[in-house]
Design a protein that fits this description.
This protein has 12 helices and 6 strands. With about 250 residues, it is an alpha+beta fold. Strands 1, 2, 3, 4, 5 and 6 form a 6-stranded antiparallel β-sheet that branches. A hairpin with a 3-residue loop joins strand 5 and strand 6.
Length: about 250
């Protein structure tokens, strides 16, 4: 996980915290739309959408709950009618790796059919970023942002790494997919480690701060993620903040 201080300004970090605060009270699609549109002050996108899907064994999303923020409706109709989800490498890459991806890099890696690329370009969807979170490997989210002004940049990737887990929590809450259905009990040590994870510290850095071995830190992180049904550290932090297990600041 990249450190906020390395790539983001103080204003960037403060604005991210404000968005995370707002995400905690986001309970319907309209509130989620407004929240995502506020990301325009940090990322210069024109088009955005998000969705929640059930994942097949070959990492294809076989059912969707899409919330269109600002994508051209004609593109979505074409995408569905032409079954582009079956050839769109961004979708499979999202549910396979759960990493921030810049579309051009994904296209170079998988070389999708030209008809798909040309159709996307016709709607101004040539460049973009996507990121999502998997829950227990069989369902997950996808958030996509596109526009002529979007360039590949570590700052953009850092922002997405930090904010998407919180937007994912909003989406799962809206979709009735929240995984944490019982009261989770974390030990004082686990809460302490979570707080350092929230600040972007690595296992090694936390081990130095707490004067315990890196292997012990990794053991605690694994236990934290199991308790919170999280598949990524950033997701564990987002879940812990949502359920009041650690403070946001």
């Amino acid at each position: 996980m990249k450190k906020l201080g390395n790539l983001l300004s103080k204003n960037d970090a403060v604005y991210l915290l404000e968005l995370i605060y707002e995400s905690l009270s986001c309970n319907n699609e309209e509130e989620l739309r407004k929240l995502i549109l506020k990301l325009k002050y940090s990322i210069p996108f024109e088009f955005a959408l998000c969705g929640f899907g059930k994942i097949s064994s070959d990492y294809q999303a076989n059912s969707y709950n899409i919330i269109n923020i600002s994508y051209p409706s004609e593109w979505l109709e074409l995408y569905v009618s032409q079954r582009f989800d079956k050839i769109d490498p961004v979708v499979k890459e999202n549910f396979t790796t759960c990493r921030v991806q810049y579309w051009n890099e994904t296209y170079k890696k998988h070389n999708p059919p030209k008809e798909f690329i040309h159709s996307a370009e016709d709607f101004g969807l040539e460049r973009g970023y996507s990121h999502g979170i998997l829950d227990n490997g069989r369902k997950g989210s996808l958030f996509s942002f596109s526009g002529d002004s979007i360039e590949r940049h570590p700052r953009t990737e850092t922002i997405l790494e930090y904010i998407i887990p919180h937007l994912h929590q909003c989406l799962t809450r809206i979709s009735g997919q929240n995984n944490v259905r019982h009261k989770v009990a974390l030990s004082p040590r686990e809460k302490e480690i979570l707080k350092w994870l929230k600040n972007g510290k690595t296992s090694w850095e936390i081990s130095v701060i707490l004067s315990i071995s890196q292997d012990t830190i990794k053991f605690h992180v694994k236990r934290i993620m199991q308790k919170l049904d999280a598949v990524k550290r950033t997701q564990a932090v987002a879940i812990a903040i949502e359920h009041g297990l650690i403070d946001i600041d």
